[in-house]
Amino acid sequence: MSSRVRSLSLILVAIVAAACGPTTRNGDNGGGDGGTNPSCTDGQTEACYDGAQGTQGVGPCVGGMHTCIGSTWGPCNGEVVPVAEICGDNIDQNCSGVADEAIDADGDGYVTCPTDGSKADCCDSTECADPAHVNPGAYDVPGDHVDNDCDGIVDNGDALCDTGLASNSSTAMDYAKAIDICRTATVAGKDWGVIEAKLTLADGTGTPADVSHSIRPHFGTGTTPKLGSSLIELSTGHAAATGETNPAFLDFGVRGTAIGSTGNNKTSPFPQPFYMKNGNKLPSAPGCTQSALGTPQAYDPVMLTLKIRVPTNANSFTLDTSFFSSEFPEYVCSDFNDFFVVLLDSTYTGTPANPTDGNLAFYKNTTNGQVYPVGVNLAHADAGLFQQCKNGATGCDTLGGASAITTCTGVDNLAGTGMDRTEANSCDADSIEGGGTGWLETSGNVKPGEIITVRIAVWDAGDHVLDSLAVVDAFRWNAVPADPGTVIF
After folding, report:
1. What are the backbone angles phi and psi of residue 229, rounded to the nearest 5°?
2. Strands ordered across the beta sheet of 72-73
3. Do 383 and 486 contact (CB within 8 A), yes or no?
């Protein structure tokens, strides 16, 4: 091999190695002696090799020499370490002992050189430090300097796909795009992404009201996307802020069949098994009791359901949420507790455990251990998450639920929503129409490579009167398990 060809070959090896990420060092701290002598004397030279153990002298992989500079070893010049196999050239680039092998050495479901037209695994054995988490079914973990998804580019992630979506879209996949899940997948395939998306009522059947869901660049002036340019709104009334159209704004506080308006005029059973696992009743905030008015059913419900294959290197996901309600402050701790849920169906059985009822939209007080489902009853007893509001009396129109809230930090996120309108009520003559949480983070744990179902829904628990709205955005995968639940952003 000419010196020029040899140099080009080394450059190619370096580029591919960088794309795959760091290899497992051969038990060496840079001293070429198995890690027993990491320090050195200035000018000293020594043999070195940074490839995976057992690969030196296999295929094209060879050691090099490095020189001590001061008391630190310099780079290993002249070495060739394992890189991703270039299939079909009969060269063993990954130094596994076999050229162009069609095997799945790391058991991640992808082979080095597939013969069936599927995507190749760029790190199946020796090419990087963590082979099982590097393959075409993985997602690119931000900032880890590894080409996790084998697309040839390090830390590039997915391009955003939430522009140009109609605000009144009835296409469920548009709502997945608006919360920044851009990839689609099939049940028969191996790639991660959305397999199925649906807009339904709370029990997974039927069609929600056209006005109950929308894709927007903001909710009011204070709530803007956390990622990309769009977010989604799900509402028990109209999914719109003051002055908006398609669907049009309608005051959150004057809706419902009880006062002559048709409202959403939809009902359905509650989601199962969430309802069953809570003893065939809706969970409430500690200290709040419910009398189950009339026939238990979800009023004015809307639900987005996403069936998703998880990346092979993801162990949890997080999305950003915010909840607003015109039930605040009068009906805090009442039967009229408008609900917002993020339900996860997963085969994950590890620690920390997902909630038994599947609902990730809950807050756990770390001081006393009490659990609060996300809803207007978060405002009871200063739970802490209900912060976009005015402090003062709550629950004035409930039976035995009267209390006060002191955790409100301001009303900036209510600006321009319609819930910022001045509205005297039985709690406070200087009150406004509603209140909200501000941005929250909701997380759940998953099993790498499995197919999960995520159901995001809102409904009114007591009647068609007074409405709530949930904002959702910025779905993202995490490489490590999360603490399931909802916390302040």
Report:
1. -120, 0
2. 45-48, 64-69, 72-73
3. no
**Cα gap 320→439, rounded to integer Å:** 7
Q: Decide: 302 and 212 in contact? Cβ < 8 Å.
A: yes
Residue type, 477: W
Picking from 188, 201, 191, the residue whose alpha carbon sits closest to that of residue 455 is: 201
pLDDT at 288: 82
Cβ–Cβ under 8 Å, residues 231 and 218: yes
Nearest to 194 by CA among 202, 185, 203: 185
| Cβ–Cβ < 8 Å for 365, 384 | yes
User: If DSSP codes are grouped into helix, strand and coil, which group holds residue 413?
Assistant: helix
Distance CA(436)–CA(378), nearest Å, equals 10
Cα 97 to the center of its chain, rounded Å:
40
Tokens of 201: 């009522």
User: How confident is the model over 109-136, as pLDDT tens digits?
Assistant: 999 999 998 999 999 998 888 999 999 9
- Burial profile 300-332: b = 16 or more Cβ within 10 angstroms, e = fewer: bbbbbbbbbbbbbbbbbbbbbbbbbbbbbbbbb
Residue 467 CA, chain-centre distance (Å), reads 26
d(CA 208, CA 344) in angstroms, rounded, equals 21
Residue ranges for the chain with pLDDT beneath 70? 1-38, 254-263, 289-295, 381, 399-401
Q: How far apart are CA 395 and CA 377, in angstroms?
A: 9
What is the residue whose two structure tokens read 């690969």?
Answer: 55
CA atoms within 13 A on the CB side of 39: 2
Residue 221 burial class via C-beta count within 10 angstroms: exposed 0-12, middle 13-18, buried 19 and up: middle
Q: Answer whether 212's CB lies under 8 Å from 457's CB.
A: no
Q: What is the pLDDT of residues 355-403, one digit of tens each?
A: 999 999 999 887 888 888 998 888 886 778 899 999 988 888 776 567 8
State the pTM of this model.
0.88
CA 370 to the chain's CA centroid = 25
